[in-house]
Amino acid sequence: MPTMTRRQFNRALLGSAAAFALPRMTPAETTPTLVAGQARVRLAPGDYPETEVWAYGGTVPGATIRLPQGGRVTRRFVNELPQASSVHWHGIRIENAMDGVAGLTQAAVEPGDDFLYDFTVRDAGTYWYHPHNRSWEQMARGLSGALIVDEAEGAPDVDMDEVLLIDDWRMTDRAEIAEDFGAIHDWAHAGRIGNWITVNGDGAWSREVQAKARLRLRLVNTANARIFSLGAKGLEGWAVALDGMPLDKPEPLDRLTLAPAQRVDLLVDVTADDGDEALLVSSERDGDYALAAFPVRGAARTARLAEPGPLPPNPVATLGPLNDARRAELLMEGGAMGGMRSAMMGGQMMDMRDMAAAGKVWAFNGMADMDETPFIEADRGETIRIAMTNDTAWPHAMHLHGHHFHRVAEDGSLGPLRDTLLMDRGETAEIAFVADNPVDWLLHCHMLEHSAGGMMTWLRVA
Ligand code: C2O
Ligand code: CU
């Protein structure tokens, strides 16, 4: 018998119908699976055909994984996609080997192969999972899901707790995913902006509520590149957490900006009357439009509940003295209408035209691909400051893996803990965090065309 690699073996196995009847030989049979594969789902209204997507478990979004704080997530990821993939657990302060970054923390999982993810969660809050290999294509095709960690104690009292994954699709007029993933125009501009927005895979998501009910809404921006500007009608309340991390003090809800990968937890009361409709709206260029509708039927109570207190804090280490902290600088350059003319690629200086031909149009500190040496080498437990300058004509959503950070204002005051920071064109921002999680972590723009196009670096915590 000719020797087969394990990958070929798995492929052969998947290819034969009889294989499905065989019992699994490995002790993994009790482990729940997370299967990525092709599926057909209804994304567009009924007069359009269904859309062929890539999905976790056949649904868009994938099933919400929900567990109590301190609990353990165990999933055998099975790749039934036609290309290699991996699963990243966005925002989880995770063991490095479970971070799911293909090429940094693990090898990409080839078609027909599998990978066991197994980790515990220290922090409560709203997180999510998505591929971290060709994510600019794989997420545009539909791969993402929510990961919700319930507070061990002190969870707020609510009448309803809903996860709303907000996504942006680029579709043809036949409701097929447009397959222009590598379009260099998108890569050099705002990223892949779509033409169809869904909440939980539904273009007209709605949920019945009662007047004066208190809702916890967990909003997640799973779009490749679209920044949402959100508002509410007939819902009043507070933002209580950002990127999973509780705010010290609930913030009265006004308009809010949600960049790719960012999350916000809202505690809102239904102030619309019985028979009316409350709305979550997105402001787009052509006006406000309803993302999610909450038709009001009946009343939960006669008067609004009292203002909520903050959520219980997560066990994140306190920053050391900032004056003594190691400080690094990150210059973000490139893109259309920027001043960058050349950058290092593969150890060589290349001009923009040659870079673009190789799909690179951005650079961090003059480098358009990931260097073999980390951008920062931190001692474990050290406080790190990174001063970032967005010297481009575009906004960027800067995401750090394995840690949450504070923004440091010019007067030294600290912003809320986040894992993804939106920086406007021309803006500078300094972040600080305790580098207490070994070993190798990415820092990149979460506009997926931007990270693939050069806005990605990594740091090492010894
Ligand atoms: Cu949401 Cu590098 O990840
Ligand atoms: Cu960007």
UniProtKB/TrEMBL annotation:
UniProt key word Membrane: no
Descriptive protein name: Multicopper oxidase with three cupredoxin domains (Includes cell division protein FtsP and spore coat protein CotA)
Any one GO biological process: cell division
UniProt cross-references to Pfam families, sorted A to Z: Cu-oxidase (PF00394), Cu-oxidase_2 (PF07731), Cu-oxidase_3 (PF07732)
Keywords: Capsid protein, Cell cycle, Cell division, Metal-binding, Oxidoreductase, Signal, Virion
A GO term, aspect molecular function: oxidoreductase activity
Signal peptide: 1-21
